[in-house]
Protein backbone atom coordinates (compact mmCIF):
# COMPACT_ATOMS: atom_id res chain seq x y z
CA UNK A 1 0.00 0.00 0.00
CA UNK A 2 2.94 2.36 0.43
CA UNK A 3 4.46 2.88 -2.96
CA UNK A 4 8.03 3.51 -2.15
CA UNK A 5 11.00 2.96 -4.32
CA UNK A 6 13.76 2.51 -1.81
CA UNK A 7 12.51 1.24 1.51
CA UNK A 8 10.51 -1.72 2.70
CA UNK A 9 6.92 -1.28 3.85
CA UNK A 10 7.75 -2.25 7.42
CA UNK A 11 10.30 0.52 7.66
CA UNK A 12 7.95 3.21 6.34
CA UNK A 13 4.93 2.06 8.30
CA UNK A 14 6.47 2.85 11.66
CA UNK A 15 7.63 6.30 10.61
CA UNK A 16 4.59 7.54 8.70
CA UNK A 17 3.11 9.31 11.68
CA UNK A 18 6.46 10.97 12.40
CA UNK A 19 6.77 12.13 8.80
CA UNK A 20 3.30 13.67 8.64
CA UNK A 21 3.45 15.36 12.03
CA UNK A 22 6.93 16.82 11.44
CA UNK A 23 5.91 18.10 8.04
CA UNK A 24 2.88 19.84 9.49
CA UNK A 25 4.96 21.23 12.35
CA UNK A 26 7.26 22.84 9.83
CA UNK A 27 4.73 24.06 7.24
CA UNK A 28 1.68 24.95 9.32
CA UNK A 29 -1.38 23.96 7.33
CA UNK A 30 -1.28 21.60 4.37
CA UNK A 31 -3.77 19.61 2.34
CA UNK A 32 -3.47 15.92 1.49
CA UNK A 33 -2.12 16.12 -2.02
CA UNK A 34 0.36 18.75 -0.94
CA UNK A 35 1.71 16.42 1.74
CA UNK A 36 2.30 13.56 -0.71
CA UNK A 37 4.00 15.87 -3.19
CA UNK A 38 6.14 17.46 -0.53
CA UNK A 39 7.37 14.15 0.83
CA UNK A 40 8.10 12.97 -2.70
CA UNK A 41 10.12 16.06 -3.57
CA UNK A 42 11.93 16.33 -0.25
CA UNK A 43 13.11 12.71 -0.50
CA UNK A 44 13.93 12.82 -4.22
CA UNK A 45 11.13 10.33 -4.76
CA UNK A 46 12.63 7.80 -2.38
CA UNK A 47 9.53 7.93 -0.22
CA UNK A 48 6.17 8.26 -1.90
CA UNK A 49 3.13 8.29 0.35
CA UNK A 50 0.01 6.85 -1.20
CA UNK A 51 -3.54 7.97 -0.58
CA UNK A 52 -4.27 4.57 0.90
CA UNK A 53 -1.80 5.25 3.69
CA UNK A 54 -2.10 9.01 4.11
CA UNK A 55 -5.83 9.64 4.46
CA UNK A 56 -6.56 6.88 6.97
CA UNK A 57 -3.71 8.27 9.09
CA UNK A 58 -4.92 11.88 8.80
CA UNK A 59 -8.43 10.86 9.83
CA UNK A 60 -7.13 8.89 12.75
CA UNK A 61 -4.90 11.71 13.97
CA UNK A 62 -7.88 14.04 13.68
CA UNK A 63 -10.00 11.63 15.73
CA UNK A 64 -7.22 11.51 18.31
CA UNK A 65 -7.26 15.27 18.60
CA UNK A 66 -3.82 15.88 17.12
CA UNK A 67 -5.00 17.60 13.96
CA UNK A 68 -7.42 20.37 13.13
CA UNK A 69 -9.12 20.70 9.77
CA UNK A 70 -10.14 23.78 7.95
CA UNK A 71 -12.27 23.73 4.82
CA UNK A 72 -11.68 26.13 1.95
CA UNK A 73 -13.84 26.26 -1.15
CA UNK A 74 -11.84 25.89 -4.35
CA UNK A 75 -14.25 26.48 -7.20
CA UNK A 76 -16.78 23.69 -7.04
CA UNK A 77 -14.90 21.53 -4.59
CA UNK A 78 -13.74 21.76 -1.03
CA UNK A 79 -10.11 21.63 0.03
CA UNK A 80 -9.38 20.42 3.52
CA UNK A 81 -6.31 21.85 5.23
CA UNK A 82 -4.79 19.98 8.12
CA UNK A 83 -2.84 21.67 10.92
CA UNK A 84 -1.46 20.61 14.31
CA UNK A 85 -3.27 21.13 17.59
CA UNK A 86 -1.23 21.78 20.72
CA UNK A 87 -1.30 18.07 21.47
CA UNK A 88 -0.22 17.29 17.93
CA UNK A 89 2.62 19.77 18.17
CA UNK A 90 3.87 18.18 21.34
CA UNK A 91 3.63 14.67 19.88
CA UNK A 92 5.47 15.71 16.73
CA UNK A 93 8.39 16.94 18.84
CA UNK A 94 8.46 13.75 20.89
CA UNK A 95 8.28 11.53 17.81
CA UNK A 96 10.96 13.45 15.91
CA UNK A 97 13.31 13.33 18.88
CA UNK A 98 12.64 9.66 19.38
CA UNK A 99 13.29 8.87 15.75
CA UNK A 100 16.54 10.87 15.64
CA UNK A 101 17.69 9.06 18.72
CA UNK A 102 16.69 5.75 17.22
CA UNK A 103 18.46 6.39 13.95
CA UNK A 104 21.64 7.44 15.77
CA UNK A 105 21.49 4.26 17.84
CA UNK A 106 20.99 2.19 14.71
CA UNK A 107 23.95 3.96 13.07
CA UNK A 108 26.10 3.29 16.06
CA UNK A 109 25.03 -0.34 16.14
CA UNK A 110 25.58 -0.95 12.46
CA UNK A 111 28.93 0.86 12.48
CA UNK A 112 30.04 -1.39 15.27
CA UNK A 113 29.15 -4.42 13.19
CA UNK A 114 30.95 -3.05 10.16
CA UNK A 115 34.09 -2.00 12.02
CA UNK A 116 34.35 -5.09 14.19
CA UNK A 117 33.35 -8.07 12.07
CA UNK A 118 34.26 -10.31 15.01
CA UNK A 119 30.96 -9.19 16.61
CA UNK A 120 29.29 -11.70 14.35
CA UNK A 121 30.80 -14.34 16.54
CA UNK B 1 -2.61 25.82 -14.77
CA UNK B 2 -5.35 23.45 -15.86
CA UNK B 3 -8.64 23.70 -14.04
CA UNK B 4 -11.33 21.07 -14.10
CA UNK B 5 -14.84 22.09 -15.10
CA UNK B 6 -17.97 21.28 -13.11
CA UNK B 7 -18.90 18.27 -15.21
CA UNK B 8 -15.51 16.71 -14.74
CA UNK B 9 -15.65 17.27 -10.99
CA UNK B 10 -19.12 15.72 -10.85
CA UNK B 11 -17.82 12.75 -12.80
CA UNK B 12 -14.93 12.22 -10.39
CA UNK B 13 -17.19 12.71 -7.37
CA UNK B 14 -19.61 10.08 -8.67
CA UNK B 15 -16.73 7.74 -9.42
CA UNK B 16 -15.41 7.98 -5.86
CA UNK B 17 -18.86 7.40 -4.36
CA UNK B 18 -19.52 4.49 -6.69
CA UNK B 19 -16.33 2.81 -5.60
CA UNK B 20 -17.50 2.46 -2.07
CA UNK B 21 -16.47 5.63 -0.26
CA UNK B 22 -19.53 6.41 1.85
CA UNK B 23 -17.94 8.67 4.45
CA UNK B 24 -18.51 12.33 3.55
CA UNK B 25 -15.33 13.67 5.09
CA UNK B 26 -13.17 11.10 3.33
CA UNK B 27 -15.03 11.78 0.10
CA UNK B 28 -14.09 15.46 0.31
CA UNK B 29 -10.44 14.62 0.90
CA UNK B 30 -10.24 12.19 -1.97
CA UNK B 31 -12.14 14.41 -4.41
CA UNK B 32 -9.74 17.28 -3.85
CA UNK B 33 -6.78 14.94 -4.01
CA UNK B 34 -7.82 13.32 -7.28
CA UNK B 35 -8.74 16.67 -8.86
CA UNK B 36 -5.44 18.29 -7.88
CA UNK B 37 -3.50 15.31 -9.14
CA UNK B 38 -5.35 15.36 -12.46
CA UNK B 39 -4.81 19.09 -12.84
CA UNK B 40 -1.08 18.70 -12.25
CA UNK B 41 -0.81 15.82 -14.70
CA UNK B 42 -2.75 17.82 -17.28
CA UNK B 43 -0.23 20.63 -16.85
CA UNK B 44 2.37 18.10 -17.85
CA UNK B 45 0.50 17.57 -21.10
CA UNK B 46 -1.78 14.60 -20.41
CA UNK B 47 -5.43 14.55 -21.47
CA UNK B 48 -8.14 14.55 -18.75
CA UNK B 49 -8.90 10.86 -19.37
CA UNK B 50 -5.25 9.77 -19.19
CA UNK B 51 -4.60 11.88 -16.11
CA UNK B 52 -7.71 10.45 -14.44
CA UNK B 53 -6.66 6.86 -15.22
CA UNK B 54 -3.11 7.47 -14.00
CA UNK B 55 -4.31 9.02 -10.75
CA UNK B 56 -6.68 6.18 -10.00
CA UNK B 57 -3.89 3.70 -10.66
CA UNK B 58 -1.91 5.23 -7.82
CA UNK B 59 -4.53 4.03 -5.35
CA UNK B 60 -3.34 0.48 -5.84
CA UNK B 61 -5.21 -2.75 -6.35
CA UNK B 62 -7.63 -2.32 -3.43
CA UNK B 63 -8.65 1.04 -4.86
CA UNK B 64 -10.71 3.67 -3.15
CA UNK B 65 -12.71 1.23 -1.09
CA UNK B 66 -9.54 0.11 0.63
CA UNK B 67 -8.73 3.65 1.67
CA UNK B 68 -12.06 3.86 3.44
CA UNK B 69 -11.65 0.41 4.97
CA UNK B 70 -8.27 1.31 6.37
CA UNK B 71 -9.54 4.62 7.67
CA UNK B 72 -12.25 2.85 9.62
CA UNK B 73 -9.84 0.26 10.89
CA UNK B 74 -7.38 2.85 12.09
CA UNK B 75 -10.01 5.02 13.73
CA UNK B 76 -11.94 2.21 15.38
CA UNK B 77 -9.09 -0.07 16.20
CA UNK B 78 -9.81 -1.78 19.50
CA UNK B 79 -6.83 -1.76 21.75
CA UNK B 80 -5.22 -5.05 22.61
CA UNK B 81 -6.84 -5.38 26.03
CA UNK B 82 -10.30 -4.85 24.60
CA UNK B 83 -9.71 -7.35 21.84
CA UNK B 84 -8.58 -9.92 24.35
CA UNK B 85 -11.49 -9.14 26.65
CA UNK B 86 -14.02 -9.43 23.83
CA UNK B 87 -12.50 -12.71 22.75
CA UNK B 88 -12.50 -14.15 26.25
CA UNK B 89 -16.07 -13.00 26.95
CA UNK B 90 -17.38 -14.41 23.68
CA UNK B 91 -15.61 -17.71 24.13
CA UNK B 92 -16.59 -18.09 27.79
CA UNK B 93 -20.25 -17.39 27.18
CA UNK B 94 -20.37 -19.77 24.20
CA UNK B 95 -18.70 -22.59 26.16
CA UNK B 96 -20.87 -22.02 29.24
CA UNK B 97 -24.09 -21.94 27.22
CA UNK B 98 -23.21 -25.06 25.25
CA UNK B 99 -22.05 -27.03 28.29
CA UNK B 100 -25.03 -25.80 30.32
CA UNK B 101 -27.48 -26.91 27.63
CA UNK B 102 -25.87 -30.35 27.37
CA UNK B 103 -25.87 -30.75 31.17
CA UNK B 104 -29.49 -29.65 31.27
CA UNK B 105 -30.48 -32.20 28.63
CA UNK B 106 -28.68 -34.96 30.52
CA UNK B 107 -30.08 -33.78 33.88
CA UNK B 108 -26.61 -33.43 35.36
CA UNK B 109 -26.13 -31.06 38.29
CA UNK B 110 -24.64 -27.61 37.65
CA UNK B 111 -26.56 -26.89 34.46
CA UNK B 112 -28.42 -23.94 35.92
CA UNK B 113 -25.40 -21.94 37.03
CA UNK B 114 -23.67 -22.47 33.67
CA UNK B 115 -26.67 -21.36 31.64
CA UNK B 116 -27.21 -18.30 33.84
CA UNK B 117 -23.55 -17.27 33.72
CA UNK B 118 -23.29 -17.90 29.98
CA UNK B 119 -26.47 -16.00 29.16
CA UNK B 120 -25.49 -13.19 31.49
CA UNK B 121 -22.00 -12.79 30.05
CA UNK B 122 -23.36 -12.93 26.51
CA UNK B 123 -26.11 -10.37 26.90
CA UNK B 124 -24.53 -8.05 29.48
CA UNK B 125 -20.83 -8.36 28.58
CA UNK B 126 -20.11 -9.48 25.06
CA UNK B 127 -23.04 -7.91 23.21
CA UNK B 128 -22.57 -4.42 24.74
CA UNK B 129 -18.90 -4.51 23.68
CA UNK B 130 -19.93 -5.52 20.19
CA UNK B 131 -22.44 -2.66 20.11
CA UNK B 132 -19.81 -0.18 21.26
CA UNK B 133 -17.48 -1.32 18.51
CA UNK B 134 -20.20 -1.22 15.86
CA UNK B 135 -21.25 2.29 16.89
CA UNK B 136 -17.68 3.51 16.62
CA UNK B 137 -16.98 2.04 13.23
CA UNK B 138 -20.19 2.93 11.43
CA UNK B 139 -21.83 6.10 10.18
CA UNK B 140 -23.95 8.08 12.62
CA UNK B 141 -27.12 7.26 10.70
CA UNK B 142 -26.62 3.57 11.43
CA UNK B 143 -26.73 3.99 15.21
CA UNK B 144 -30.48 3.29 15.67
CA UNK B 145 -30.14 0.12 13.60
CA UNK B 146 -27.24 -1.19 15.69
CA UNK B 147 -28.96 -0.26 18.95
CA UNK B 148 -32.18 -2.07 18.03
CA UNK B 149 -30.12 -5.04 16.91
CA UNK B 150 -28.35 -5.07 20.26
CA UNK B 151 -31.56 -4.73 22.28
CA UNK B 152 -33.15 -7.50 20.22
CA UNK B 153 -30.24 -9.90 20.58
CA UNK B 154 -29.64 -9.21 24.27
CA UNK B 155 -33.38 -9.53 25.00
CA UNK B 156 -33.64 -12.81 23.13
CA UNK B 157 -30.54 -14.21 24.85
CA UNK B 158 -31.86 -13.26 28.30
CA UNK B 159 -35.25 -14.69 27.33
CA UNK B 160 -33.75 -18.03 26.34
CA UNK B 161 -31.76 -18.11 29.59
CA UNK B 162 -34.86 -17.34 31.65
CA UNK B 163 -36.85 -19.90 29.68
CA UNK B 164 -34.31 -22.66 30.32
CA UNK B 165 -34.29 -21.75 34.03
CA UNK B 166 -38.13 -21.55 34.15
CA UNK B 167 -37.88 -18.07 35.63
CA UNK B 168 -40.81 -15.68 35.38
CA UNK B 169 -40.54 -13.00 32.69
CA UNK B 170 -38.94 -15.25 30.06
CA UNK B 171 -41.83 -14.72 27.67
CA UNK B 172 -41.60 -10.95 28.01
CA UNK B 173 -37.86 -10.89 27.21
CA UNK B 174 -38.22 -13.31 24.33
CA UNK B 175 -41.20 -11.62 22.71
CA UNK B 176 -39.66 -8.17 23.22
CA UNK B 177 -36.27 -9.22 21.86
CA UNK B 178 -37.69 -11.03 18.88
CA UNK B 179 -40.05 -8.16 18.12
CA UNK B 180 -37.12 -5.72 18.08
CA UNK B 181 -35.21 -8.01 15.75
CA UNK B 182 -38.11 -8.88 13.47
CA UNK B 183 -40.02 -5.64 13.27
CA UNK B 184 -37.17 -3.11 13.38
CA UNK B 185 -33.68 -4.52 12.95
CA UNK B 186 -34.03 -7.02 10.08
CA UNK B 187 -36.21 -4.76 7.91
CA UNK B 188 -33.83 -1.80 8.32
CA UNK B 189 -30.77 -3.99 7.78
CA UNK B 190 -32.07 -5.50 4.58
CA UNK B 191 -33.51 -2.23 3.34
CA UNK B 192 -30.05 -0.67 3.59
CA UNK B 193 -28.46 -3.70 1.95
CA UNK B 194 -31.09 -3.63 -0.77
CA UNK B 195 -30.40 0.00 -1.60
CA UNK B 196 -26.69 -0.56 -2.20
CA UNK B 197 -26.95 -4.12 -3.48
CA UNK B 198 -25.89 -4.96 -7.02
CA UNK B 199 -27.99 -8.12 -7.03
CA UNK B 200 -31.35 -6.94 -5.74
CA UNK B 201 -33.41 -10.14 -6.17
CA UNK B 202 -30.92 -12.15 -4.09
CA UNK B 203 -30.83 -9.53 -1.32
CA UNK B 204 -34.61 -9.37 -1.30
CA UNK B 205 -34.98 -13.14 -1.05
CA UNK B 206 -32.33 -13.32 1.70
CA UNK B 207 -34.29 -10.73 3.67
CA UNK B 208 -37.51 -12.69 3.25
CA UNK B 209 -35.82 -15.93 4.33
CA UNK B 210 -34.44 -14.22 7.45
CA UNK B 211 -37.92 -12.93 8.32
CA UNK B 212 -39.45 -16.35 7.73
CA UNK B 213 -36.90 -18.06 9.99
CA UNK B 214 -37.60 -15.56 12.74
CA UNK B 215 -41.36 -16.01 12.42
CA UNK B 216 -40.89 -19.78 12.63
CA UNK B 217 -38.80 -19.51 15.80
CA UNK B 218 -41.44 -17.21 17.22
CA UNK B 219 -44.21 -19.64 16.35
CA UNK B 220 -42.31 -22.59 17.84
CA UNK B 221 -41.84 -20.73 21.11
CA UNK B 222 -45.49 -19.79 21.40
CA UNK B 223 -46.90 -23.16 20.35
CA UNK B 224 -44.76 -25.23 22.65
CA UNK B 225 -47.43 -27.91 22.67
CA UNK B 226 -49.42 -28.71 19.60
CA UNK B 227 -53.18 -28.46 19.98
CA UNK B 228 -53.62 -32.22 19.52
CA UNK B 229 -51.01 -33.02 22.15
CA UNK B 230 -52.72 -30.64 24.55
CA UNK B 231 -56.05 -32.30 23.96
CA UNK B 232 -54.63 -35.81 24.35
CA UNK B 233 -53.11 -34.88 27.68
CA UNK B 234 -56.09 -32.95 28.97
CA UNK B 235 -58.94 -35.31 28.11
CA UNK B 236 -58.05 -38.02 30.69
CA UNK B 237 -57.31 -35.36 33.30
CA UNK B 238 -60.64 -33.72 32.65
CA UNK B 239 -62.43 -37.07 32.74
CA UNK B 240 -60.88 -37.79 36.12
CA UNK B 241 -61.71 -34.35 37.46
CA UNK B 242 -65.34 -34.38 36.35
CA UNK B 243 -65.80 -37.85 37.84
CA UNK B 244 -64.30 -36.76 41.15
CA UNK B 245 -66.45 -33.62 41.32
CA UNK B 246 -69.37 -35.89 42.19
CA UNK B 247 -67.62 -37.09 45.34
CA UNK B 248 -68.70 -35.03 48.36
CA UNK B 249 -67.64 -35.00 51.97
CA UNK B 250 -71.17 -36.24 52.78
CA UNK B 251 -70.22 -39.58 51.18
CA UNK B 252 -68.04 -40.12 54.22
CA UNK B 253 -70.61 -39.16 56.87
CA UNK B 254 -70.15 -42.08 59.23
CA UNK B 255 -68.67 -42.44 62.67
CA UNK B 256 -65.00 -43.26 63.10
CA UNK B 257 -61.60 -41.71 62.60
CA UNK B 258 -61.18 -42.82 58.97
CA UNK B 259 -64.51 -41.35 57.89
CA UNK B 260 -63.86 -38.08 59.65
CA UNK B 261 -60.42 -37.66 58.15
CA UNK B 262 -61.62 -38.65 54.67
CA UNK B 263 -64.51 -36.19 54.82
CA UNK B 264 -62.16 -33.41 55.93
CA UNK B 265 -59.74 -34.23 53.11
CA UNK B 266 -62.46 -33.97 50.51
CA UNK B 267 -63.67 -30.66 51.97
CA UNK B 268 -60.12 -29.33 51.85
CA UNK B 269 -59.46 -30.52 48.29
CA UNK B 270 -62.69 -28.98 47.01
CA UNK B 271 -61.92 -25.72 48.75
CA UNK B 272 -58.35 -25.60 47.36
CA UNK B 273 -59.56 -26.38 43.83
CA UNK B 274 -62.17 -23.63 43.86
CA UNK B 275 -59.79 -21.11 45.41
CA UNK B 276 -57.07 -21.77 42.82
CA UNK B 277 -59.44 -21.66 39.85
CA UNK B 278 -60.88 -18.38 41.20
CA UNK B 279 -57.41 -16.84 41.38
CA UNK B 280 -56.13 -18.20 38.10
CA UNK B 281 -59.22 -17.45 36.03
CA UNK B 282 -60.40 -14.46 38.05
CA UNK B 283 -63.96 -15.72 38.41
CA UNK B 284 -66.43 -15.99 41.29
CA UNK B 285 -66.43 -19.06 43.51
CA UNK B 286 -69.75 -20.24 42.09
CA UNK B 287 -68.33 -20.11 38.59
CA UNK B 288 -65.09 -21.73 39.69
CA UNK B 289 -66.86 -24.69 41.25
CA UNK B 290 -68.70 -25.34 37.99
CA UNK B 291 -65.56 -25.23 35.80
CA UNK B 292 -63.91 -28.36 34.52
CA UNK B 293 -60.29 -28.62 33.38
CA UNK B 294 -61.17 -28.05 29.72
CA UNK B 295 -62.87 -24.77 30.65
CA UNK B 296 -59.63 -23.31 32.00
CA UNK B 297 -57.95 -20.74 29.80
CA UNK B 298 -54.62 -20.66 31.65
CA UNK B 299 -53.99 -24.37 31.72
CA UNK B 300 -50.23 -24.07 32.11
CA UNK B 301 -50.49 -21.64 35.02
CA UNK B 302 -48.12 -23.02 37.63
CA UNK B 303 -47.73 -19.82 39.59
CA UNK B 304 -51.18 -19.75 41.14
CA UNK B 305 -50.93 -23.25 42.68
CA UNK B 306 -47.37 -22.52 43.73
CA UNK B 307 -48.36 -19.33 45.56
CA UNK B 308 -51.50 -20.82 47.03
CA UNK B 309 -49.90 -24.03 48.28
CA UNK B 310 -46.28 -23.17 49.04
CA UNK B 311 -45.78 -19.46 49.64
CA UNK B 312 -45.87 -17.99 53.09
CA UNK B 313 -49.12 -19.08 54.66
CA UNK B 314 -49.39 -21.69 51.90
CA UNK B 315 -51.96 -24.34 52.64
CA UNK B 316 -50.10 -27.46 51.56
CA UNK B 317 -49.34 -28.35 55.20
CA UNK B 318 -53.07 -28.62 56.00
CA UNK B 319 -53.50 -31.20 53.25
CA UNK B 320 -50.43 -33.17 54.37
CA UNK B 321 -51.77 -33.18 57.95
CA UNK B 322 -55.19 -34.52 57.06
CA UNK B 323 -53.75 -37.15 54.69
CA UNK B 324 -51.54 -38.41 57.50
CA UNK B 325 -54.65 -38.92 59.59
CA UNK B 326 -56.35 -40.83 56.77
CA UNK B 327 -53.28 -43.02 56.43
CA UNK B 328 -53.18 -43.79 60.11
CA UNK B 329 -56.89 -44.52 60.33
CA UNK B 330 -56.97 -46.80 57.33
CA UNK B 331 -54.08 -48.92 58.50
CA UNK B 332 -55.14 -52.56 58.74
CA UNK B 333 -58.48 -51.79 57.13
CA UNK B 334 -57.25 -51.25 53.58
CA UNK B 335 -55.11 -53.63 51.53
CA UNK B 336 -51.58 -52.33 51.76
CA UNK B 337 -50.64 -50.14 48.79
CA UNK B 338 -54.24 -49.52 47.76
CA UNK B 339 -54.40 -46.22 49.53
CA UNK B 340 -51.03 -44.98 50.56
CA UNK B 341 -50.16 -41.31 50.35
CA UNK B 342 -46.66 -41.65 51.61
CA UNK B 343 -46.41 -38.08 52.75
CA UNK B 344 -43.29 -38.78 54.80
CA UNK B 345 -41.34 -40.30 51.93
CA UNK B 346 -38.75 -38.31 50.04
CA UNK B 347 -38.50 -38.44 46.29
CA UNK B 348 -35.66 -37.83 43.88
CA UNK B 349 -36.25 -35.61 40.83
CA UNK B 350 -33.34 -34.81 38.48
CA UNK B 351 -30.87 -35.57 41.23
CA UNK B 352 -32.67 -33.35 43.75
CA UNK B 353 -34.26 -34.78 46.88
CA UNK B 354 -37.83 -33.54 47.41
CA UNK B 355 -40.59 -34.17 49.96
CA UNK B 356 -43.94 -35.59 48.93
CA UNK B 357 -45.66 -32.22 48.52
CA UNK B 358 -42.91 -30.56 46.48
CA UNK B 359 -42.46 -33.61 44.29
CA UNK B 360 -46.13 -33.73 43.32
CA UNK B 361 -47.23 -30.11 43.41
CA UNK B 362 -44.31 -27.65 43.19
CA UNK B 363 -43.92 -25.96 39.77
CA UNK B 364 -46.73 -28.07 38.40
CA UNK B 365 -49.43 -26.58 36.14
CA UNK B 366 -52.89 -26.03 37.58
CA UNK B 367 -54.46 -28.73 35.39
CA UNK B 368 -52.14 -31.34 36.80
CA UNK B 369 -52.70 -30.20 40.39
CA UNK B 370 -56.46 -30.45 39.88
CA UNK B 371 -56.26 -33.91 38.36
CA UNK B 372 -54.05 -35.11 41.21
CA UNK B 373 -56.64 -33.77 43.66
CA UNK B 374 -59.30 -35.71 41.74
CA UNK B 375 -57.17 -38.83 41.98
CA UNK B 376 -56.94 -38.46 45.77
CA UNK B 377 -60.71 -38.13 46.01
CA UNK B 378 -61.28 -41.23 43.89
CA UNK B 379 -58.74 -43.17 45.92
CA UNK B 380 -60.51 -42.11 49.11
CA UNK B 381 -63.85 -43.34 47.73
CA UNK B 382 -62.33 -46.69 46.82
CA UNK B 383 -60.61 -46.98 50.20
CA UNK B 384 -63.89 -46.17 51.93
CA UNK B 385 -65.51 -49.19 50.20
CA UNK B 386 -62.80 -51.40 51.60
CA UNK B 387 -63.07 -49.90 55.06
CA UNK B 388 -66.86 -50.38 55.02
CA UNK B 389 -66.36 -53.95 53.91
CA UNK B 390 -63.77 -54.64 56.57
CA UNK B 391 -65.97 -53.07 59.25
CA UNK B 392 -68.91 -55.20 58.21
CA UNK B 393 -66.92 -58.42 58.59
CA UNK B 394 -64.86 -57.17 61.50
CA UNK B 395 -66.92 -58.79 64.30
CA UNK B 396 -66.74 -62.19 62.62
CA UNK B 397 -63.08 -61.81 61.89
CA UNK B 398 -62.24 -60.86 65.43
CA UNK B 399 -63.79 -64.05 66.85
CA UNK B 400 -61.82 -67.29 66.96
CA UNK B 401 -62.03 -69.27 63.77
CA UNK B 402 -64.54 -72.08 64.07
CA UNK B 403 -62.70 -75.30 64.12
CA UNK B 404 -63.45 -77.82 61.46
Give your account of this protein's structure:
With 121 residues, chain A is α+β, with helices and mostly antiparallel strands. Chain A contains five helices and three strands. Chain A has a three-stranded antiparallel sheet. Chain B folds into three domains: 6-75; 77-222, no CATH class; 227-392, no CATH class. Chain B contains 16 helices and two strands. In chain B, a hairpin with a 2-residue loop joins β1 and β2. The longest helix of chain B is centred in the C-terminal third of the chain and has 33 residues, at 366-398. In chain B, 25% of the residues are buried. The model of chain B is unreliable at 396-404 (pLDDT under 50). The interface between A and B is medium-sized, with 25 and 27 residues.
Task: Summarize the entry for a quick read.
Chain A has 121 residues and is α+β, with helices and mostly antiparallel strands.
How many DSSP-defined strands of chain A? 3
Distance between the termini of chain B: 142 Å
Outline of chain A: elongated
Give the spatial strand order of the biggest sheet of chain B: 1-2
What would the principal axes of the Cα set say about the shape of chain B?
rod-shaped
C-alpha end-to-end distance of chain A: 38 Å
Name of the top-level CATH class of chain A? Mainly Alpha
- Strand arrangement in the largest pleated sheet of chain A: 1-3-2
Average predicted confidence as pLDDT of chain B: 83
What are the key terms here?
heterodimer, A: 121 residues, alpha+beta, 3 strands, 59% helix, 15% strand, elongated, B: 404 residues, mainly alpha, two-stranded antiparallel ribbon, disordered C terminus
Blueprint of the fold:
The complex is a heterodimer of chains A (121) and B (404).
Chain A: H1 9-13, H2 16-27, E1 30-31, H3 32-42, H4 51-63, E2 67-74, E3 77-84, H5 86-115
Antiparallel strand pairs in A: 1-3, 2-3
Chain B: H1 6-18, H2 24-43, H3 48-57, H4 63-76, H5 80-106, H6 111-137, H7 143-165, H8 170-196, H9 200-222, H10 227-245, H11 257-281, H12 285-290, H13 303-310, H14 316-330, E1 346-349, E2 352-355, H15 356-361, H16 366-398
